[in-house]
Amino acid sequence: MSAAVYVLSTVTGYVLTSALLLRCPSLLHRRKRETFRSRHISHRGGAGENLENTMEAFKHAVKLGTDMLELDCHLTKDEQVVVLHDSNLKRSTGINSYVSDVAYTVSPDTYCYCEGGEDKSIPLLKDVFEAFPNTPVNIDIKVNNDTLIRKVSELVIQYNREHLTVWGNASNKIVKKCHKENPQIPILFSLPRVLLLLGLFYTGLLPFVPIKEQFLEIPMPSIASKLKDPKRQTRVQRLVTWLSDKILMRKALFNHLTSRGIQVYIWVLNDEEDFKRAFDLGATGIMTDYPTKLKEFMEKNSYPNNFT
């Protein structure tokens, strides 16, 4: 009987302590220093309004007042860091070549031109840094390449942007390399670390565990029904979407993380219903393909932009 009382009291103490620290993490953890906070994030510069990852898209988003530019990086054959999502040029240029197999050039008869839009050039990362010295940039390192990671770090240092940059990838190997290369640049949660985060949260261990990441970027699973006709989804697909949404979209989790200085970004949201839900859940910011639409929503509903 005494053993049962001991176990019960231990479990009760653990649950109560976990609940307390979940709500008041400052009792155990020092809040991470935020050099910027982003509410309005332009995915690939605003891929729904301009040609993605181009200077035209970035200029448009910054002119609107976006808090952050999200972009993707690859390395060319001559070791230039270019802003491009795909590893192959087929979708953007019609040429079936890998970025890593071609040299960067600004000549009009070569590979650095995209289809559609007035601005068709593929920019260098340094072009973005030079054009927007005060705008936070979210960098997705698209391939596990030590030289690419080193080059991006060197550019961040050269343009004095360690306090205005976050980088990473879904791959844990890439994120680890990024952090080892330059621990002064904040990192994103990789996919394995997101899964670990959820495991810690649902077991009550999260409030006790230190976290090195400063940014959590996750999708809102419920938008799957808007990307694909629900009638064409199987019952299993609908169940997985519903369950994933219930697991990921947790206000208590978001509040705990933001209280520890970890920003939560939800992507890629493109309509007012999802904008509202994300902010109501306590997300720090929203990543969107339509920066104008998000700006109008925020102004109409009196959501503040970045902080000073």
UniProtKB/TrEMBL annotation:
Please give an example of a GO cellular component term from this record: endoplasmic reticulum membrane
Localization in the cell: Membrane
Give residue ranges for domain GP-PDE. Answer: 38-298
Q: Does the keyword Transcription apply?
A: no
Q: Which reaction does it catalyse?
A: 1-O-(1Z-octadecenyl)-sn-glycero-3-phospho-N-hexadecanoyl-ethanolamine + H2O = 1-O-(1Z-octadecenyl)-sn-glycero-3-phosphate + N-hexadecanoylethanolamine + H(+); N-(5Z,8Z,11Z,14Z-eicosatetraenoyl)-1-(9Z-octadecenoyl)-sn-glycero-3-phosphoethanolamine + H2O = N-(5Z,8Z,11Z,14Z-eicosatetraenoyl)-ethanolamine + 1-(9Z-octadecenoyl)-sn-glycero-3-phosphate + H(+); N,1-di-(9Z-octadecenoyl)-sn-glycero-3-phosphoethanolamine + H2O = N-(9Z-octadecenoyl) ethanolamine + 1-(9Z-octadecenoyl)-sn-glycero-3-phosphate + H(+); N-hexadecanoyl-1-(9Z-octadecenoyl)-sn-glycero-3-phosphoethanolamine + H2O = N-hexadecanoylethanolamine + 1-(9Z-octadecenoyl)-sn-glycero-3-phosphate + H(+)
Tell me which domain of life the UniProt entry assigns to the organism this sequence originates from. Eukaryota
Mention one GO biological process in which this protein takes part, according to its record.
N-acylethanolamine metabolic process
Query: Keyword annotations for this protein?
Result: Hydrolase, Lipid metabolism, Membrane, Transmembrane, Transmembrane helix
Show the stretches that span the lipid bilayer: 6-28, 185-209
Q: Which GO MF terms are attached to this record?
A: phosphatidylcholine lysophospholipase activity; phosphoric diester hydrolase activity
Q: Tell me which Gene3D superfamilies the record gives.
A: Phosphatidylinositol (PI) phosphodiesterase
Q: Output the Pfam families linked to this UniProt entry.
A: GDPD (PF03009)
Belongs to which family? Belongs to the glycerophosphoryl diester phosphodiesterase family.
Q: What is this protein called?
A: GP-PDE domain-containing protein
Species of origin reads Danionella cerebrum
What is the taxonomic lineage of the source species? Answer: Eukaryota, Metazoa, Chordata, Craniata, Vertebrata
